[in-house]
Structure formats: C-alpha cells, structure tokens
Design a protein that fits this description.
The complex is a heterodimer. By secondary structure, chain A is mostly helical. Chain A contains 4 helices and no strands. Chain B has a single domain, classed as Cytochrome c oxidase, subunit III, four-helix bundle (Four Helix Bundle (Hemerythrin (Met), subunit A), Up-down Bundle), CATH 1.20.120. Chain B is elongated. The chains are: A mainly alpha, B mainly alpha.
Chain lengths: 112, 202
C-alpha cells in the first residue's frame, strides 16, 4: 500500500531556508517604508514555514485531508485576529495613557 | 499480502495509512499551533493597542537570534538525515544524526538563556521595560519561553530516541517512531521561524 516516493533534496531546502534567513535580516535595513518591510518579512516567513511543512514534514506527500488538519490552526488564527479587532481600536492602553500623561506632567513641572 | 489486509488497513487510518501515531502527532501539532497562534495574536493586539511600543530589534538585537534561527534550521536538516538513515537501515548513522540534532537544540537553549540573562540585566522584566511599553517584556518572555519549553521537550524526546537507537531498537520497519519525533522537531523549528519574524524583525 505504501508507495515509495523519491526523497526530496533536503540539502537544497536547507540552503533555501538559510538564504531566506539572511535575506530577512538584510530586509530589515532596507530604507523603504515600514509597511513594505513588514509585508515582505511576513511573506518570507510563510514561505519558510511552508517549505519546512511541505518537505521536512513531508506534507507534500501526505493525503490532502491531512493537509487540511495542518491548515486548520491557520484558519482559526485568522478568525482570532478578527475577534481581537474590537480591542485594537481602544488604543492607547488605559494604563499606558496614564503613564504618558504623568510623565508629560513631570516634564512640564521640570521645565517650569 | 492477503486481500483483506490490503482493503482493511487503509480504511482504519484513511489519513495516514502507515499508522495512527502520525495522525495523532499531526492533530496534537495542530492544537499546539493554536497555542502559539493565540500567543502571537495576543501579542499583535497588545502591540497594536500600545502607543509607546519600542522597536523590537533595538531592544532585543537580531544578530544572535539570526544565529539561533540558523541553528534550528541546521538541526532540522540533521533530523531528516536521521530519518533517511534509518529508512536505509543504517541505525548507527541515525543515532549520530539524532545526537547532532540534540546538540543543536541544547546550543539553542544555551543561547536563549544567555539572551534572557542579558535582557534581564538590562532591566527588561515581566512588567518593567526601560525602552517603552511595560507589556513588551511580558509578551516577549511568554512567547519565547513557551517556545523554549517546546525545545526543551524536543531535546528530551530526541535524547530518549537516540538512547533507544543505541540499544538497536529502531530498524527500517520501525522508522515511523523517528518520523513522528521528526514532525514534532520540525514543528518547533517552523514556529521559531514565525516567532523570529513577528517578535524580533517586525
């Protein structure tokens, strides 16, 4: 029943992962907007994660249904981000705002 | 092979015909991924709601962490090499690669301990942060600590595997135990790739 599949070229995957890691560190210092850097970094991280899952964890050679199990947490996490959105609009954090208020008061007192 | 075995076995484990252990590990990992997903989503919510969040790389530094990332990728490579070795019936080579993987994990933990010590001495505590928002340290230690605990678990898991391998308990037929342990180890590597991006780089 087990169909022998050809072993993926692990060393090649390893080299791609290493190169991507070096590029990630380099991308941080590229003088473009933070949003562009952020999107690039997230895309690179997901490419790396996918490479590990598909080749090192052999997901590429597994049944498609097992892939659905593996993808479930990703889907739920996207839902979780939407669930957390109402909290994001309540910025700044009350305690942080209080801290900023007191520290700016102190500065005002000092400057007087 | 009898026809009964050929028709019944796959039906018992339709997702992983070679055994239920692998399916169990995948389901566990999916659940574990949710733990990390929740921590990271919580981190995102706290960070997005804070006005004085520091630039992580300025507080944490990324050169040491890049080395740690590389280390885990290396240990993933030695882990797959261990699996290919036992699939070819080479138990001795498998044990060597397993010890290399354990070594990678132990050095990773050592570097993390060094990093934490350095940060704690620099004043970054669970509720104190000289560089800005007071929750920065709490989220940082929770996420990297939870991951470090997973690495510790993986090191213990692989050490047991290596010792059993030295006793000659694994062969081509029982290589699935090594594959299942490998799934866990690669998952820990995968999570670190995401932690490295979300906690250190962005």
């Amino acid at each position: 029943m087990t169909t022998a599949h050809q072993e993926p070229n692990y060393t090649k995957i390893f080299i791609i992962l290493t190169v991507l890691t070096v590029l990630e560190v380099a991308v941080v210092f590229v003088p473009v907007s933070k949003l562009v850097i952020g999107i690039t970094l997230v895309l690179m991280a997901f490419v790396k994660a996918a490479l590990v899952a598909l080749y090192f964890m052999h997901l590429k050679h597994e049944k498609v249904a097992l892939g659905f199990i593996a993808l479930t947490p990703l889907v739920i996490c996207v839902l979780l981000i939407f669930a957390l959105l109402p909290d994001l609009v309540n910025s700044p954090h009350p305690k942080a705002a209080e801290k900023i208020a007191t520290s700016s008061n102190n500065e005002m007192i000092l400057s007087q | 092979m009898s026809q009964i075995a050929a028709t019944i076995d796959p039906a018992e484990n339709p997702l992983t015909p070679e055994g239920s252990g692998k399916l169990g590990m995948w389901i566990f990992l999916a659940g574990d991924a949710m733990s990390f997903g929740t921590l990271l989503a919580g981190y995102g919510a706290v960070r997005a709601g804070a006005v004085d969040w520091p630039v992580p790389q300025e507080v944490l530094g990324i050169s040491l962490t890049a080395v740690m990332t590389f280390l885990l990728i290396c240990s993933s490579l030695t882990m797959v090499k261990a699996l290919s070795a036992i699939k070819n019936g080479d138990s001795k080579s498998m044990v060597n690669f397993l010890w290399l993987t354990v070594l990678g994990g132990v050095i990773f933990l050592g570097l993390q301990a060094y990093e934490w010590t350095h940060l704690i001495n620099a004043g970054l505590g669970l509720t104190s942060n000289p560089h800005g928002n007071y929750l920065f340290g709490a989220t940082f230690y929770a996420i990297t600590g939870f991951h470090g605990a997973h690495v510790t678990g993986g090191v213990i898991y692989l050490t047991i595997l290596a010792i059993r391998g030295m006793q000659g308990k694994y062969s081509e037929e029982t290589s699935s135990s090594v594959e299942i342990a490998g799934l866990y180890w690669h998952f820990v590597d995968l999570v670190w790739i995401l932690v490295f991006t979300f906690v250190y780089l962005i």
